C-alpha cells in the first residue's frame, strides 16, 4: 500500500530539459524556426507581388534599381555563405581555433560589406524620391528587402557574440552547437536572397 | 589522415556548391538585360535558375539529403514549401484576378 502511494506521489522523474541537450533535436528545432521564418518571408513576398505596379505615379523599379550594386551584393552574400561553410568544416575537423576565427571574421566582413552596399542603395533610392511612404509599391519593397537586411544585421551581431564566446571559453560543445545554428541561419539568408533578387528586383523590373 | 580526407571532401562539396551558385547567378544577371523586359517569359528562366540555385545550396551548403537520417528535415522543408506556395501563389492568383475584374492594372 505504501509502495503504491509513493508511486502516485512520485511520477517517474523526467528531465524536461533533456531534449535541449540532444544536438540532433536542437538542430531540428532550429530548422523548425527557420521554416516558420520562411513562411513569414513568404507572406511579405506575396504582398510585394500584389503591389507591383502600384506606384501611384511615384518612381518604380525602372527608375530606382541599380543592378550593378545588386550583383555586388549577391556575390558578397554568396561568398559569405561559402566562408561560413568553411568555418563550419574547420570546426568539425578540429582545425586550429585561429583558422576557425579567421573564416568567421571573413564572413562577418562580407556580411558588413553587403549591409553597407544595401544601405547605400536605399539612400540612393531615397534621393530619387523612392521612400516607403511614397506608394504602396515602395511600402511593400521597404517591408521586404530591409526585413532581410535586418536578419543579416542580427546574423552579424550573432557572429560577433560567437567570436567573443570562442575567445572567452574556447570551442566547447555548447559553443560549437551555437555556431552550427548560426551557419544554418546564414545559409538560409542566402536562400532568401535568391528569392529577393529573382522576384523583387527582376520580377519588379520586368512587370513594374 | 582519415581526418584530413574528410576535411577535403567537405571542402569540395562547399566549393562545388559555390561555383554552381556563381554560374547560376551570372546566368540570371546576364539573361534579364539580354532578353529585355518586353519578353515577360524571361522571368520563367529566372525562376528556373533560382530554383536550381536553391536546390544546389540546400544540397551543398545546408546538407539536406534524401537519405534516411535526413528524412525529418526533408519532410519539414517540403511541408513548409507547400504552405509557402499555397500562400504566395494563392495570393497572387486571387489578387491578380481581382485586379483584372476591377480593371486596374497590376
From TrEMBL, chain A:
<protein>
    <submittedName>
        <fullName>Cytochrome c oxidase subunit 3</fullName>
    </submittedName>
</protein>
<dbReference type="InterPro" id="IPR024791">
    <property type="entry name" value="Cyt_c/ubiquinol_Oxase_su3"/>
</dbReference>
<keyword id="KW-0472">Membrane</keyword>
<dbReference type="Pfam" id="PF00510">
    <property type="entry name" value="COX3"/>
</dbReference>
<dbReference type="InterPro" id="IPR000298">
    <property type="entry name" value="Cyt_c_oxidase-like_su3"/>
</dbReference>
<feature type="transmembrane region" description="Helical">
    <location>
        <begin position="100"/>
        <end position="120"/>
    </location>
</feature>
<keyword id="KW-1003">Cell membrane</keyword>
<feature type="transmembrane region" description="Helical">
    <location>
        <begin position="182"/>
        <end position="207"/>
    </location>
</feature>
<feature type="transmembrane region" description="Helical">
    <location>
        <begin position="140"/>
        <end position="170"/>
    </location>
</feature>
<keyword id="KW-1133">Transmembrane helix</keyword>
<feature type="domain" description="Heme-copper oxidase subunit III family profile">
    <location>
        <begin position="28"/>
        <end position="205"/>
    </location>
</feature>
<comment type="similarity">
    <text>Belongs to the cytochrome c oxidase subunit 3 family.</text>
</comment>
<feature type="transmembrane region" description="Helical">
    <location>
        <begin position="26"/>
        <end position="50"/>
    </location>
</feature>
<feature type="transmembrane region" description="Helical">
    <location>
        <begin position="70"/>
        <end position="88"/>
    </location>
</feature>
<dbReference type="InterPro" id="IPR035973">
    <property type="entry name" value="Cyt_c_oxidase_su3-like_sf"/>
</dbReference>
<dbReference type="InterPro" id="IPR013833">
    <property type="entry name" value="Cyt_c_oxidase_su3_a-hlx"/>
</dbReference>
<keyword id="KW-0812">Transmembrane</keyword>
